[in-house]
Amino acid sequence: MQEKFETAAERVRPRILALAKKFAGAVRLDADPEDIVQETLLRLWKAMGDGNVVNADAWAVTAVKNLCVSLYRKARNHTRVSALADAIPGGDAASAPLEAREGADRVQAALEQIPSGTRKLLSLKAAGLSLDQIASITGRPKGSVKSSISIARKQIMQILNNG
Questions:
Q1: Domain coordinates of the chain in residue numbers?
Q2: Percentage of the chain modeled with pLDDT above 90
Q3: Each residue's pLDDT tens digit, 70-122
Q4: Where are the alpha helices (DSSP H) in 27-162?
Q5: At the topology level of CATH, where does 88-162 sit?
Q6: Does the structural domain 2-76 have CATH classification 1.10.1740?
Q7: Can you tell me the distance from the alpha carbon of 139 to that of 132, in angstroms, rounded to the nearest whole number?
Q8: Residue 100: which residues within 8 A CB-CB, separation 6 or more?
């Protein structure tokens, strides 16, 4: 297995490094392409050990694309969640400039228009908890938590855009 992985890794590494660099450059991703490649190769090694890989080249290319998209979405969602987190009570809005405080007030007003249970889900997500952790805390299925958070974000954006 070790020799088979090393051969596959040597063969596929240049291709997935080029993909990672291209993606990171295109979307201005902060992640280092070398880290993306290392994570992909680690996942390939685990998958090959489990016997789940038929074509290592195709598997690695798909895995690096999926990892890049995941990192991009995580960075994009982090920006959105940070904006919501700033508006959740307990933040230090008093030291923010006037425009930021007004924006935070608008977001806070939008948050007050959604159900309290949904606000709780948003605050847990803004605190950095994963969907699995939130589902465990609330006793709701992970899919329900994900759906509720997504709907709440859309409602808040609609309220902000209309107000």
A1: 2-76, 88-162
A2: 17
A3: 888 777 765 555 555 555 554 454 544 555 667 777 778 888 888 888 888 88
A4: 33-50, 56-87, 98-112, 116-126, 131-138, 142-162
A5: Arc Repressor Mutant, subunit A (1.10.10)
A6: yes
A7: 10
A8: 86, 93
C-alpha distances in Å from residue 134, one per residue of 13, 56, 123, 128, 130: 37, 35, 10, 10, 6
**Tokens standing for 83?**
């904006």
Give 115: exposed, middle or buried? Use CB within 10 Å, 0-12, 13-18, 19+: exposed
pLDDT of 17: 92
- What residue has token string 């954006």? 157
pTM over 0.85: no
